[in-house]
Every structure is written in structure tokens, then in C-alpha cells.
Amino acid sequence: MPRLLLLAVPVLGLLGAGVGLATRPSPPPPVVEATDPPAPPTPALIVVDVVGAVAHPGVVRLPAGARVLDALLAAGGMTGDADLTALNKAAPLRDGMRIYVPRPGEQIPSGRSGDPSETKIDINHASAAEIESLPGIGPNTAARIVRSRETKPFARIEELQTRGLVTPRVFADVKDLVSTR
User: Fold this and answer.
1) pLDDT confidence of 64, banded at 50, 70, 90?
2) What is the pTM of this model?
3) For residue 74, is it left (φ>0), alpha (ψ between -120 and 50) or beta?
């Protein structure tokens, strides 16, 4: 009998634990609330001045990342007497730019869009977002360029490559798009 008692006590203990677990109330299911997805951030606006042979010369507001063509369209388009080949309509815009649309034979005033020095991105003053708009340059490379120029401004565009900031292939793609004004 003591032997049977020694075997019965653990078996009864296990049965009691099993019954206790089986009769325990289950936890309530997790509550999942449906929420609206976050609204995408509102793009920053840039302001540019469009003058010359356009339908409605003046200041226009455009989303960041806009191109010269977007500014021309916002100003009502080019007039019939505009020199259609004078501007690079695919050039990216920067806040505060002035775009001058000349007539045939007219010179583009210095410092206006269309002037080669104006359409290039100044790597010593451009924002990281502007630098990132260049082909082959992502957010990390743009941030490294900004940090590098804070240490020592660029004297020549070739320093992008000599400082190890971009590969030779990327430099070949951007060398005609940047300046060190």
C-alpha cells in the first residue's frame, strides 16, 4: 500500500494541474484598432521668378524637385517669340532662381537660368536634397558631401572624387551638372 500511495500522489498532482490548466479562462484576444495610414509629408515648395518671353511673367510656387519646364508651364508657357532652344527645360530648379526666357538672338543675362553657371548645382552651397537630385547620388553620399564641405569647402569639382566621396563613374555622370561657385 505505501508503494501504491507513492505512485498515486504524483499522478493525482499531475491530473489536478492538467484540470486546472484546462479550466482556466483563456486570455481575451488582442484588440486591433484600424487606423488611417499616415498622410504623406507635404512636399516643400520652392519659389522661382519666370521672366522674358512667357505668357505670365512673375513669381511661381512649385513643389521641390520641379524642373524648368514646370516653371514655364506655371507661367502660362512660352510665347510665340521665345527662343525654344535657349533653355534646358529638364534642369532642376532651386529656390530663389530666376528663369529668363530669351527671344531669338537675345543673350541670356548672366546669373539667370540658362546661363551655364546658374543651372549647375553649387556643391559648396546646395542642400543635401539638391545634391541628392544628381544622378548616382543617394542620401548617404549627399550627407557625406555636405559634411566634407563643412570641414573644407571644395575648390574644384574634381575633389568629389579625390576626397573619395563619389566613384569615377558617378563623377563622370555629375561633372557637367555641378560647380564650386
Assistant:
1) confident
2) 0.44
3) alpha
